[in-house]
Design a protein that fits this description.
This protein is of the alpha+beta class. 33% of the residues lie in helices and 23% in strands. The strands form 3 sheets. An 8-stranded mixed β-sheet has the order 1-2-10-7-12-5-4-3. It has a 4-stranded antiparallel β-sheet with strand order 6-11-8-9, with no helix packed on it. Strand 3 and strand 4 form a beta hairpin. Helix 4 packs across helix 5.
Length: 317
C-alpha cells in the first residue's frame, strides 16, 4: 500500500435533500452506491446530519456519566440474552448494552432504573433520541439493500423481524508508548447491520477482501455501516460481512464508541429467499436463529478463528 495514498472506505452522503425519501433521484443515486459498497467492502462511511452537534455532545457527556459509575453498579447491566449486558476486558475496554434502545420505556425499565434506582430521565431521553435518529438511517439503508436485490416484497417482514441493541464502549489508551494495543480482536458482527459512531478518537480498522486493513478516520456527522453475519447469510453471500478490529494508538485519548446493532428477534429464523438462489448462486447457508448462533459462539470462544468464520462453521453448506 502506498503510504501517500492510504486505503479508504467508500463515503456516501445521506445529507442530500432526498437521500432518505424513497423514489427520489437522490434516493436512487445513494441506493446504487450503498449496494456497491456493501457488496465489495461490506461497509462504508455515511455522512448523516440526523444527529445535531448539541445532541451528540449531550450523548457523549452521558457516556462519561455512565462509565464513571462504580464497577459493581455497571455489572447490574444484565440481560438474559447473550452479549447484551456488561462486558469487561480491562485494561483494554468495557462495554454496556441497552436492548430496544429506540423505545424510551424499555431504556428506563431495563437499563436506567437499574443503574440509577432514583431514576435518570435525562439519560434515558438522550439514549432513546440518539438511537431513534440512527435507526432512521439504518431503516433507509436496509430498504435500499432490499430494493437493490429486488426483494421489496420481504421489506415488511425484514423490518419487523429485528430489534435495536445499543452497545456503549470505552477504550483506554495503551499504557505503553511503544506500540498500539488491541482494543478488540478481528471479528465480524453477529447482527443484521451495525452502525458505529465515536468521539473522534481513531482506532477502528476494517479489512478489505484483499486482506488489507483500512484505518477509518471519523469526524462529527460520520458513521460507519457494517454488514453483519445475518445479512450476509440472508443475502446468500451477495453482501460481504466485513472483518474489523480496534487498535488503540499510544497517546490516544480515551475512546468512546457506540454500536447500534440490528439484531434478529429470538423467535425469527434467518432464511435466504429462494429468489436469491440459482445456478450461479447456489445456497450457501442453512436457515438459523440468531440467538442459537450466539449460543454456539459462546461455547466455542477458545477458537480465535471462529470470530471471523463462525457463520460458515455454524450453518454453512
Amino acid at each position: 500500500m502506498d503510504s501517500e495514498n492510504p486505503l479508504t472506505l467508500p463515503v456516501i452522503d445521506f445529507s442530500m435533500p432526498g437521500a432518505l425519501i424513497p423514489g427520489t433521484p437522490d434516493w436512487d443515486s445513494v441506493k446504487v452506491k450503498v449496494h456497491e459498497a456493501l457488496k465489495c467492502y461490506g461497509s462504508f462511511k455515511a455522512l448523516y446530519n440526523g444527529l445535531q452537534p448539541e445532541l451528540l455532545k449531550t450523548y457523549f457527556d452521558a457516556l462519561d456519566e455512565v462509565f464513571d459509575l462504580p464497577t459493581d453498579v455497571k455489572k447490574l447491566n444484565v440481560y438474559k440474552k447473550l452479549y447484551h449486558g456488561y462486558l469487561e476486558h480491562k485494561p483494554k475496554f468495557e462495554g454496556l448494552g441497552i436492548d430496544c434502545a429506540n423505545i424510551l420505556e424499555e431504556v428506563e425499565k431495563n437499563f436506567t432504573n437499574t443503574l440509577w434506582p432514583e431514576g435518570n430521565p435525562n439519560f434515558s431521553k438522550t439514549i432513546q433520541s440518539v438511537s431513534s435518529q440512527v435507526a432512521v438511517l439504518d431503516g433507509a439503508i436496509r430498504r435500499m439493500v432490499l430494493e437493490s436485490l429486488g426483494m421489496e416484497k420481504y421489506l415488511e417482514e425484514h423490518m419487523n423481524s429485528t430489534n435495536y441493541l445499543l452497545r456503549l464502549y470505552k477504550y483506554l489508551p495503551p499504557e505503553s508508548t511503544d506500540e498500539p494495543q488491541i482494543g478488540s480482536n478481528p471479528h465480524t458482527d453477529k447482527s443484521v447491520t451495525t452502525i458505529l459512531f465515536e468521539n473522534e478518537v481513531d482506532g477502528l480498522q476494517i479489512q478489505n477482501k484483499q486482506g488489507d486493513w483500512i484505518s477509518v478516520k471519523m469526524s462529527q456527522g460520520s458513521f460507519v455501516v457494517l454488514v453483519g453475519d445475518a445479512l450476509h447469510a440472508w443475502s446468500n453471500g451477495r453482501l460481504h460481512n466485513a472483518i474489523h478490529q480496534i487498535r488503540m494508538k499510544p497517546g490516544n485519548k480515551t475512546r468512546y464508541s457506540t454500536a447500534l446493532f440490528v439484531v434478529p428477534k429470538e423467535d425469527y429464523t434467518v432464511k435466504t429467499p429462494e429468489e436469491l438462489v440459482d445456478q450461479e448462486h447456489p445456497l450457501l447457508f442453512k436457515p438459523f436463529k440468531n440467538f442459537e448462533y450466539l449460543e454456539f459462539i459462546s461455547t466455542q470462544m477458545a477458537s480465535m478463528d471462529l470470530k471471523v468464520n463462525a457463520i460458515k462453521k455454524y450453518c454453512g453448506i
